[in-house]
Amino acid sequence: MSDWTLRLHDVSFFRGQRRVLAGASFDVARGELVALMGPSGAGKTTLLRLIAGLDTFHSGTVQVEDVALNGGAAHPPAALNRLREKVGMVFQYPYLFEHLPVLKNIWLAPVHARGMPRPEAEGRARELLASLGVEHRAAALPRELSGGEAQRVAIARALAVDPPLLLMDEPTSALDSSRRTELSELLQGLTRDGRTLVVATHDEEFARQCAARVLRVSEGCVSEDDQIGQ
Amino acid sequence: MTILNSCLGRVEIKSESVAPTAALPSKRVGSRLKVFIRAARLAALALLLLPAAAEPSEPSGEFRWAGDPEGGAPFVEADPAQPDKVAGFDVEIAELIARRLGRQARFVNITFTSIDQSIERGDAEIGLSGMEDTPARRAAAAPTVPYYRFREVLSVRAADAVRFRTLADLRGRRVGTLGGTIAYEILLGAEREHGIKVVSYDDDVHPYSDLVIGRVDAVLLDNVLAERRARALPGFTIQPQSVAIGHYVGVLAARNSRLRDQIDEILRGAMGDSSLEKIFRKWRVWNDDQPELHAEVLAGKSLAPGSGLAATDVAPPVAGWQATVRYLPSLLRASALTLVLSCLAMALAVALGVLIASGRVYGGRLAQMLLRAYVEVMRGTPILLQLFVLYYGIAEVIRLPAFGAALLGLALNYAAYESEIYRAALEAVATGQLEAARTLGLSERQVLGLVRAPQAFRLALAPMTNDFIALLKDSSLVSVLTVLELTKQTQIFATNIGSWVIPGLLCAALYLAMSLPLAALARRLEQRWKAPTA
Questions:
Q1: B245 exposed, middle or buried (CB, 10 Å; 0-12, 13-18, 19+)?
Q2: B435 interfaces chain A, CB cutoff of 8 Å
Q3: Which pTM was predicted?
Q4: I need a surface site. Which of A173, B60, B203, B342 has the fewest CB within 10 A?
Q5: What is the predicted ipTM?
Q6: B150-247 falls under which CATH superfamily?
C-alpha cells in the first residue's frame, strides 16, 4: 500500500475562460493534516470540490487511495461511488439537513448509504456528538443551533461514515478563539487515528496550531510552504 | 322547459345581455360562465337580501323580455340566417305581445336558471323561454295564462321499447333529465317510489346522446324536446304514454300583475284569432293538445299547474325553513360527494404532480419536453373543455363513468399545476444541501427521497393547500358531467323555491365547513414543518 492517501497530478480547471488551477500537483500522506492557504478566490474551495468529486476538471488526475478521477470527461458513477466511501467533506456553510434533528442528520448516511443497522448508527452518532461536545443538542433542529454547534455537528456527520480522507473548508469561520483551539485539538486527534485531513483556511494561527504542512494556492498553482512544527 | 344548449356552433346575439352567455363560442364556455355567475351570485348574497327592486321604469316604447338562446330551437335560438338575431316560437310570441302592447320587443339574454330572479330584479318585464307553470312560480311570481301544453314523455333505446314502458319498469336504472325542472321533480318522486337513479343534466342534448350510448337507460323530458332530438339523433324511441302534462307560461314579477293581466288578454286574443296556432304550426309544435288548451283558457277554466303529477312530485311552495329541512339531506349528500371527489382528485393530482415534477427535474431532454408540453396543454385549456372531452369526446372509445371522468378530469388538470409547484420547490432546495448529501455517499435517488423532496414538500405545502381549497370549489364544474355535487344541488334547490337566499347561504356555509378545517390543518402542518427563515 502506498504511503499517501491523496495525490493530485497536473490538475487544471477553468471556470468559463478563467483558469482557476494550472497543473496543480501534490501528495498528502496517510494521517497527515495539510492546510491549504491562499487569498480569497485563489482556488482553495475549488480544489476541495474537485477532490470530493463534486466538479469535473479539464485535465490531470485526482487519486484517493486506489480510486482515480481523470480530467477531461465526466466522472464514471462507479468511480464516484467508490470515491465517496473514502472522502468526507465539511463545507464552509454546514448545510445540515434542515428538516431533520441533529441526531438523524448524523445517522442518515451510515444507515442509508452504508447499510449500518440503525441502533448501531444511532449509538455511533451519539458518541460522535459527545466527542465534539454537542451531545445535548441531539434532538435540536439545525435552525436552533449556534454557528459553532452547527459546524461541530457537520464534522460529526462527515465522520459518521468514517472516511479515510476528510476535507474541511474554512472550519473556523464561525468559531471564536477558544473554540478554534478546541477544533485544532480535535483535528489533531483525528490524525492520530490515522485519518488524513486537508483543511482550506485563511486562518494562519489555526494553520500553525494544527497543520503539519501548508500548501499555498496562488494564481492557479499549488506550492509547498514551510513546515510548521507542532 | 328549456334547453340550455343544443348549439354546437357559435351563437351571437346583438342585444342586451344580462348574463353574458350569448356571445360565446360553445356550450362549454357558456356553462363555465354560468358557474361564474353562480359564484357571483353567492358573493352578492347580501345584495339579494335587500328588498326587491322598485318597479322598473321601462322606456315607454320598449318591451323587454328575457330568454336563454342556448335553449335552441324551437324556443329561442340564434337565427341561422342572421346569427345576431334570435328566432323561435317564444321569440314570435314576445313580438306578438309587444306589437299588441304598442311597444318594440327587446330581447334580454338571461341564463335560463336565472330568469325568475332577473324578472324579480327588473332586468326584463317577462320571461319567455319554455318556462314551466309550477306551484312555486304561481306563489312567487305572476305567471300568465298557459299558452302551450306539453307532455312529459319517456324516451328509451329502441331495443328497450318493450321492457321500459313506464318509470315503474326502470327500477335500479339510470334515468336522465334536466335539473331544476318538473321532470326532475317527477324523477325524484320515482326514485323514492320505484328505486330509479336520477341523473341530472345541464342541457337537453347529452341526455339523449348518453341514452343512445348506454350511459342512461331512459330520459324524461317534454315532448317538444324529445321530438326535436328524435329528428336529429337516431337510436331511441319515445314511449306514447305521457308521464305528466304541463304548460308553458310567461313569467312576470308579482308586482307586475297589471301588465300580466294585459298580456293575458293579448294571449287570449291570439288564441281566439289563431295567431298562436300560426306561430306553433310554423315551428312544427302544433298538436291536438293545443286546441283543447286554448279552448279551456278562453272559457276561463282554472288550470292546475300540471296533471299526472303526484302531490309530492311538484310540491307547493313552503316557507324557507321548511324548504331547508326538505333539501338539507340532499345538500349534505352533495357535500359528502364534493368532499370525497375533491380528496380523491387531489390525492391523484399530487401523485401525478410529483411524477411530472421529478421527470422535469431529473428526466432526459425528451421526457422534459413531453412533460412540459403536457403541463402547458393542461394549464392552457379550460378545465371544462377537458371534462367534456373526457366524458363526451372520447365516449365512443372509452366510456368513463361520470364520477370516474370527473375524478380523472380534475386530477389531470390539477396535476399540471401541482407539478409546477413541486418543480419550483425542488429547484428551491439549496444546492449545498444536495452536495452535502452526495459527499456522504447517498445515491441520487436517496438524495431526492431523504433530503430534497422532504424539504421541497415544506416549501410546497402552502400553495398545495390553496390548490386543494380551489379544487374543492372547482369540483362544482363536474356537474356538467351529471355529477350532482353541492353547487348543482344548490342550484336545483334555488330554482325550485325561486330564491337564492337560503340555498346560497346554506351552500356557502357548507363550502366553508369543508374548507376552513382544511385551511386550519394546513396552517398547523406549515407551523410544524415550516422552512427555516434565513
A1: buried
A2: yes
A3: 0.69
A4: B60
A5: 0.91
A6: Periplasmic binding protein-like II (3.40.190.10)
